[in-house]
Amino acid sequence: MGKCLTIVKLIGIGSLGLSSAAFLVSNYKLVPDVLKVSSSSVETLKNKASKLITVLRLQFWSLGSLSTFLFYQAFSHSPSYGKHPYLIYSALAFPIALAYNYYFTFSDEQKLIADAEEKIIYKTETKLVKEAVQQEEENSPLDNSVYNDLGSKSPKFEEKEVSVQVPHVSKVELSETTYKDILKSLSNSYNVTSAILGAGFLLASVGYFGDNLK
User: Fold this and answer.
1) How far apart are CA 178 and CA 122, in angstroms?
2) What span, in angstroms and rounded, lies between the C-alpha atoms of 92 and 196?
3) pTM of the model
4) DSSP of 16-58, one letter per residue?
5) 49 closest CA partner among 191, 174, 198, 170
6) How many CA atoms lie within 13 A of 161 on its CB side?
7) What is the C-alpha separation between 200 and 16, in angstroms, rounded?
8) Of 150, 187, 208, 214, which shows the fewest CB atoms inside 10 Å?
9) Please, which pLDDT band fits residue 15 given cuts at 50, 70 and 90?
10) pLDDT (tens digit, 9 = 90+) per residue, 23-58?
11) 131 pLDDT exceeds 60?
């Protein structure tokens, strides 16, 4: 049992380390290489960036979820004296990194993959509106007084054409400059993700060496 738990822990630690390393390599090697693509090969730039994001997502979700699952299994199947807190803390590294990616990275990745972003464009449209028109008061031909015997008249409504600015959401293809700017921003986000996973890897490694059940 102890040997099986040791293998489970080591695979979990390795998964975290590999996932963190993948983001580091992407941030300091792959993304700069993509940004160096000649301006005359914009299509190549976009294809490389899209493939990079797809591969990173695949390794992040697979290795990250694997590490969380294994650390949880190691904790739940360990005897009471082997249920060390580092297993739980290490298991939380991937969910925290995933939450960060969802709020700060996912939308930019989607823009690059789709090669488009949503923009609000205002268009002028003509619409018919009803306006109340005050009716003229009728005066008596005898003493020029205003008729009040029937009370005030209800207002008259007339239709009138007016020009209004109507917002429309439109998808616009990303320019090369915008594409590279988003990619640079994405690189910074990957750095944070790598740091979160790396902290989990470091914690798991230190905890494992001090683990009395291995």
Assistant:
1) 21
2) 10
3) 0.73
4) HHHHHHHHHHIIIIIHHHHHTS-GGGHHHHHHHHHHHHHHHHH
5) 174
6) 3
7) 7
8) 150
9) very high
10) 988 888 878 877 776 665 778 878 888 888 899 999
11) yes
